[in-house]
Specification:
Rossmann fold; 4 strands; Ptyr_pPase_sf
Length: 161
Amino acid sequence: MKPYNILFLCTHNSSRSILGEALASTHKSGRFVGYSAGSTPGNAINPIAQALALEMGYAKEKMFSKSWDLFAKSDAPQMDFIITVCDSAASEACPVWIGHPATARWGFPDPSKVEGSDDEKRKAFVNVMNGLQQKLDAFAALPLENLDQPSIENELRKLAS
């Protein structure tokens, strides 16, 4: 079975999209290869997001902030699905994606904005990670190879709620 490429988008590509990339790439189904990017990528990955991704077994050298323009190039990996995980990136004008992948918005609050103790901050990241994991588990359980593009997009969008 061919793994599906999923691109997770967020504005700065430092937290939620990184978690999506790591979760998809390490998903127990083996059905996904995760990627992430941002509209205005930052310089550093949030240390809590990085620690959680490392705990999943995701390689540190794969975690770096990158522009979504990288994935709109002709030599970029072709995406099957593109999922926006933050509100601000969802309202921005995205590049034209090669192959017209199915798209959806799985919005999560920005865990890096949580104030409080280190435990409270980590809990916010874990909540996002668990939410993404639930959605990926449900998506992986679908018979994707038997669904057409509109049906897949519909299923992706159902998972947003």
